[in-house]
Amino acid sequence: MCSRKFFVGGNWKMNGDKESLGELIMTLNTASLNDETEVVCGAPSIYLDYVRSKLDQRIGVAAQNCYKVPKGAFTGEISPAMIKDCGIEWVILGHSERRHVFGESDELIGQKVAHCLESDLGVIACIGEKLEEREAGTTEDVVFEQTKVIADNVRDWSHVVLAYEPVWAIGTGKTATPDQAQEVHEKLRGWLRENLSDAVADSVRIIYGGSVTGGNCKELAAQPDVDGFLVGGASLKPEFVDIINARS
Ligand code: PGA
């Protein structure tokens, strides 16, 4: 099929404590994980160092957000330099909760993408339409516009994973059907081909997020343009292992 390595990210959001995350880490460290899958766990910032020190090195760690400059008077923020200093290679940017709960604009997300990539931090860049946008038939316009702002800030796509996460599917138990996910992923790849290059379109992993579970992951993973997942709720449970192994 294609040479894109399957990518499964866990997004633990603001959940867990040292004890429960320690148990989850033990489960992941001792599980049999498909070598053909790249796995990255998004930990709360205060636990990044703890998680990196406990989690097996075959599993990557991601911050869930960061700021757009290396340092300075930005109370409460963390920088890519700090994330890198903790031995962490990835950051999730533009998650729908950052956009819609904390009001992050496309412009700010673009600036963060640029600075993280300049700092040599891999970026899991999230996009996705709200329910009313899907119902109004504007899904394509919304995700293309969000992708354009990200693309305008990327020079080298080898450290970028694009996560399509329809807002109506996040944390709702209402997963996009495999056909719905494939349709948007295919269009996104077409956008990358038309606006960037064949090489970018063929190599960038486009992963799906929104109520992915052990039960629905295999059918989604079988879609040709679904190159992995970003998993919230189920990434805190042992079934995350089944999702990692969805293509096994
Ligand atoms: P969910 O979250 O799997 O709980 O729907 C996905 C996400 O927010 O990345």
From TrEMBL:
Reactions that this protein is recorded to catalyse: D-glyceraldehyde 3-phosphate = dihydroxyacetone phosphate; dihydroxyacetone phosphate = methylglyoxal + phosphate
Subunit structure: Homodimer.
Assigned protein family: Belongs to the triosephosphate isomerase family.
Enzyme category, top tier: isomerase
Function of the molecule: It is also responsible for the non-negligible production of methylglyoxal a reactive cytotoxic side-product that modifies and can alter proteins, DNA and lipids. Triosephosphate isomerase is an extremely efficient metabolic enzyme that catalyzes the interconversion between dihydroxyacetone phosphate (DHAP) and D-glyceraldehyde-3-phosphate (G3P) in glycolysis and gluconeogenesis.
Protein's UniProt keywords contain Lyase: yes
Protein name per its UniProtKB record: Triosephosphate isomerase
